[in-house]
Amino acid sequence: MRVYRGYSRPVPAPTVLAIGNFDGVHLGHAALVRRLVGAARQLAATPTVLTFEPHPREFFAPQSAPARLTTLREKLELLNDCGAEQAMVCRFNEAFAALSAEEFVEEVLVRGLRVRHVIIGDDFRFGRGRKGDFELLKAAGLVHGFTAEAMESVIVDGERVSSSGVRSALAAGDMERAARLLGRPYVIDGRVVHGDQIGRQLGFRTANIRIKHNPLPMTGVFAVEVGGLGPRPLPGVANLGIRPTLGGTRPLLEVHLFDFDRDIYGAHLSVRFVHKLRDEQKFSSFDALKAQIAQDAEAARAYFKR
């Protein structure tokens, strides 16, 4: 995937464009990108996504912004997997937020992206004060020579698929519902870093994965499958949180892989959260924590043997 930062220079070829925040890249986003790819093929244009960094709600209200489901890297990788060939990432700052809907169309879509067709979700708004909607986009297309369409929401088990729905499922520990909305298990990617060797003292060697999700969309102990170490995902148990018993303050993902004893420092792993075992909690002693971790590992093994 080609990635452009900003719209100061036009992309090299005309585009068919999907616009959105795409947090989580759920089934609704995947359907949008599939439609994008089909339209791009018909118009002999490049299937392109336009997204924003940071999320607009993080810019306007950072203290109340929702937890991110995906980092920018994870989001772009997932959009690429869906078929998008090109992405423009617009820095959402004061100048960008001040663009009127008409300026957004003229400067970003027409000049920057050379758009021929635009696809948006049925709830997407754009421009200063969120004044831009589908009707404005269609009218602008008549002036500037592009067409527009709005995708209807995707419904799964009677529920409208949305990023907020995925967040709700994760926060409730309902990994199965989250997977239905995403079309796959929820995943966090990250690189294995050196830790404080506490896992060895507890009798469970762990891969410590530094993550950028803050605030976290969920915390707790989970049965996981880990990709990136071979042809098949490996089963394990993971703690996602701040490790309150050990006085932790920064989010950390710790993964213990079953029957595995290789040095994997520096490896980039993909951790799939398939089932929640319990909430993260603070224990009264190191021994109590050690005993609980042993129980967690047995519970995760039992889950995979079902």
How does the overall form come out from the CA principal axes?
elongated
Overall residue-averaged pLDDT value: 92
CATH class of the largest domain: Alpha Beta
Name the poorly predicted regions. Answer: none
Largest sheet properties: 6 strands, parallel
Number of helix segments?
10
The rounded Rg comes to 22 Å
Q: CATH superfamily of the largest domain, called what?
A: HUPs
Helix content: 25-40%
Total separate domains: 2
Question: What is the end-to-end distance?
Answer: 39 Å
How are strands sequenced across the largest beta sheet? 1-4-3-2-5-6
Helix and strand run? EEHEHHEHHEHEEEHHEHEEEEEH
Structural class: alpha/beta
The CATH topology of the largest domain: Rossmann fold
DSSP strand count: 14
The CATH architecture term of the largest domain is 3-Layer(aba) Sandwich
Strand content: 25-35%
Describe this structure in words.
The chain has 306 residues and is α/β, with parallel strands linked by helices. It has two domains: 2-156, Rossmann fold (3-Layer(aba) Sandwich), CATH 3.40.50.620; 187-304, Riboflavin kinase-like (Elongation Factor Tu (Ef-tu), domain 3). Helices cover 33% and strands 27% of the residues. It has ten helices and 14 strands. The chain has helices at residues 27-43, 56-60, 72-82, 94-97, 101-112, 134-144, 163-171, 175-182, 198-202, 286-304; strands at 2-5, 15-19, 46-53, 86-91, 115-121, 147-151, 155-156, 159-160, 186-193, 207-210, 220-227, 234-241, 252-257, 268-278. Strands 1-4-3-2-5-6 form a six-stranded parallel β-sheet, with helices on both faces. A six-stranded antiparallel beta barrel has the order 9-10-13-12-11-14. A hairpin with a 2-residue loop joins strand 7 (155-156) and strand 8 (159-160). It is elongated, with a radius of gyration of 22 Å.
